[in-house]
Design goal:
Blueprint (H helix, E strand, L loop, with lengths): L8 E3 L16 E9 L26 E8 L5 E7 L6 H15 L6 E5 L21 H27 L2 E11 L3 E8 L2 E7 L7 E8 L6 E8 L14 H13 L4 E6 L5 E3 L5 H19 L4 E2 L4 E11 L6 H8 L4 H16 L5 E11 L3 E6 L2 E2 L2 H9 L23 E5 L8 E2 L2 H6 L22 H14 L2
Parallel strand pairs: 1-15, 4-5, 10-11, 16-18, 17-19
Antiparallel strand pairs: 1-16, 2-3, 2-6, 3-4, 6-9, 6-13, 7-8, 7-12, 9-10, 14-15, 15-16
């Protein structure tokens, strides 16, 4: 593991497609590949600490999908989406190293995005331990699945790169009404409950990949900022995101649909808890894609610029030894276990004060800036970054529009969460001040080495995003 903890900011994509009459069509090359990732055996599922038995079959297959892009100077960028709760950092590091060795792909050219389905397998090493009361055989199955998945993803990237052929890229966006803010102020503070008045991001961004003549659609990459938690049963399923991809591919035969989740840490699909609602929510998001495709597409042109960096985030100080001992005696087994493990680190002097946050940037000319953030990111980040990064492009530097007139329109901005590593929640300053599950309480269900972030977390992440955008 290159670093023990991290927040990944994946600034994803400003692409390039046919723009002016003087520009050749098919400026891009694109390749796509898919692979089924459904476990071949019953195993522990990720997402709900209260689960007490392994999986019981499937609703539909889980998948990993890759979209490879290459601009006219040979810069390549591969987006991999997977029906999974999240990637541990060492998993990302291992895949990054292998695709670099086998395909010459640079670290900044690989973006992994997990749909965060809570109906998929558990691969996180800290979760797959007997400290979480998992049977030994299930711990071994988790390790086995993770190793198999790593091999599949490396091969998937290679197949997508081998599939590179001339293409056009364009951007459109629609809307969906699935997500509702889940932070409700009550007499007990902020609890997880539907809040129709809370902030939400209903955009459905779409990157459309077509043949050079624009007639045949090869791939549709789309996103939505909402927890993938309609379901809580024991069958493998992609949840609403899995159904949305299925419906888009059924509407566009021969097209690969890829879902990249946004900043949905404090957003829940509403209503929840039935398979029918998962299907309906998937249909609503798929309808958002169709709504987007009905509008005039915005050409996405090059060059492709990529960057990868880290922001050093500050962690809050751990509780005192006395407080930890009190928590260790709690009747809440999660609070007790967390306090006991943290107490060992405190007494041994092993606690950390900072967290290395990976920031990934990919921009396509002045047309599209995609920002990808690691961890479970709250919606405040996407709402803020879309405002701050969508400023007007200067006439001197902007590409010409199709009519030959310099464009003053700023880049479209796409912000994704759950990129490259999911280590816990990433609250905004507002959420930290308000408290509640996303601010602090969730650490009971994550790796004990991760403490709540200090109030500087939002500023440090946003500053890193701007730094990488400026340095392109």
């Amino acid at each position: 593991m290159r670093v023990t903890a991290i927040t990944l900011v994946c600034l994803a994509v400003a692409g390039s497609v046919v723009g002016s009459a003087s520009e050749p069509k098919g400026m891009w090359k694109a390749g796509v590949a898919t692979v089924v990732t459904t476990p071949e055996y019953s195993m522990w599922m990720a997402g709900y600490a209260a689960r007490n038995k392994p999986s019981e079959g499937k609703v539909h297959d889980l998948n990993a999908k890759a979209l490879a892009l290459e601009d006219t100077v040979g810069t390549r960028f591969v987006i991999v989406t997977v029906d999974l709760i999240g990637f541990p950092r060492d998993f990302r590091d291992a895949v990054e190293k292998e695709v670099g060795t086998r395909y010459g792909l640079k670290p900044q050219a690989l973006l992994l995005n997990a749909s965060h389905t809570h109906s998929g397998p558990e691969i996180r090493a800290w979760r797959a331990t007997q400290a979480w009361d998992l049977p030994p055989e299930q711990i071994e199955l988790g390790k086995k699945y993770a190793e198999t998945l790593q091999v599949k993803i490396v091969d998937l990237v290679g197949r997508a790169l081998n599939d590179l052929t001339p293409a056009q890229l364009s951007y459109v966006h629609g809307r969906a009404g699935v997500a509702m803010n889940r932070r409700l102020l009550t007499e007990r503070g902020y609890t997880i409950s539907p809040n129709a008045d809370g902030p939400v991001d209903q955009d459905v961004p779409v990157l459309l990949v077509t043949a050079p003549d624009g007639k045949k659609t090869r791939a549709i990459l789309f996103g939505y900022a909402c927890h993938n938690t309609t379901l809580d049963f024991y069958q493998f399923c992609g949840d609403y995101a899995g159904f949305a991809q299925q419906y888009v591919e059924e509407t566009h035969p021969g097209t690969v649909a890829l879902f990249m989740i946004g900043c949905g840490a404090d957003q829940n699909p509403t209503p929840r808890r039935t398979l029918e609602w998962a299907k309906q929510h998937g249909r609503a998001v798929a309808n958002g894609v169709e709504q987007a495709l009905a509008s005039k597409p915005r050409p996405v042109r090059g060059p492709l610029k990529l960057a990868l960096g880290e922001a050093t985030l500050e962690l809050s100080a751990p509780p005192s030894v006395e407080e930890l001992k009190k928590q260790a005696a709690s009747a809440n087994k999660y609070e007790s276990r967390h306090a006991q493990e943290l107490l060992k680190d405190v007494e041994a002097g092993r606690t950390r004060s900072t967290y290395p946050y990976l920031v990934q940037v990919a921009q396509f000319g002045d047309d599209l800036t995609m920002v990808g953030l690691a961890g479970e990111v709250v919606v405040d980040y996407s709402l803020r970054l879309k405002k701050e990064l969508a400023g007007p492009v200067s006439r001197a530097s902007s590409p010409r529009s199709e009519g030959g007139t310099p464009s003053t329109q700023g880049p479209a901005v796409w912000v994704a969460g759950y990129c490259n590593e999911v280590f816990g929640y990433v609250p905004s300053q507002r959420v930290l001040q308000e408290g509640g599950y996303e601010a602090r309480d969730s650490i009971l269900y994550y790796d004990i080495t991760v403490m709540p972030f200090a109030p500087s977390v939002e500023t440090l992440i946003i500053n890193k995003v701007h730094e990488l955008v400026r340095d392109r």
